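--- STAGE predict ---
source: upstream dedup step, 1 unique chain passed
mode: sequence only
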Amino acid sequence: MDSNMSSEIGTESKDYVTSLARGLAVIRCFDKDRCKLSLTEVAKYTDLARATARRFLHTLHALGYVETDGKLFWLSPKVLNLGFAYLSSQPLVELIQPYIREVSDKTCESCSVSVLDLPDIVYIARSLTQQIMSVSLHIGARLSAISTSMGRVLLAGMSDVEIENFIRSNSVEKYTKHTLTDYISILDKVMLARKQGYSVVNQELEIGLCSVSVPILNKAGKALAAINISSQTQKMDKKRLREELIPNLQAAAKKISEVLPADERLLF
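--- STAGE serialize ---
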C-alpha cells in the first residue's frame, strides 16, 4: 500500500482489513530483544486476545514465516522475503547503488542512503568500508529521525508546522551525553540543516561516531532521500568536512537527482 493510500484509509474505513493489521502486528512484535516469545507474551505485546494471537501464530507457522518448538515462537528466515520484496521492487535502490559506492571509493568511508518513515529513518542502501557502530546497521534498519544527520536533512524538507509538531510530539532517547533532547536545540539543528543544505551530527548516537548528510532532491526540489557518510569523530574535522566529505556527498546527490525519472511513481 502506498503512502498516499495509507493516509486516506483509516481504521474505521470499510477498506481497512483488521486481520491483516493484526497479523503484521504479530510479526513486528519480534525484535532483537524479543527473539523468542511464548503465546502469552505475543498476546501481551500485540494487545490481542490469547486465542486470536494463537490463530495468527499458527497461520504464520503454516505459511513458513514463524517457527516453533511447541512452547516458544520465533520468526523464520522467510520473513526476509517481505523486506527483500520492497528492495527488489524499488528502482531507486538499484539506481543509487553505484553512486554511494563511488562516494565510498573516493573518501574511503562508509556511505548510506535512507528514506523517512516517521518517526524514523530507514536504511535502503549501504556501501561499507568498515564497521563503525557498535550496533550493526543493515538494510531496513531504523534510527531516530530526530537524532541522526539523515533524519534532520529530511525533516528540514517538511513545512515549519510539520517540523514543530513532530519534534514536540516525539520524545528523544538520551543515547549519549551529547544527544540533544530539548525542543529548541533540536528545532535549531533542523532549521540549520535546511539553511546550509547539510547536517552534521557528532556523537549524539554513539560516542566517537560522527555523521554528515545531504538530501537527495526530486525534480521538484523536494527531499526524496538522504545520503550520508559516517566515520570516527577524529577523522571528520571541519576542514575535511568542508573540503572533501560534503562536496562528495553533494556531487553524488546531484548525480542521483539528475537521473531520477520525471515520473516519481516509477521509483516506488
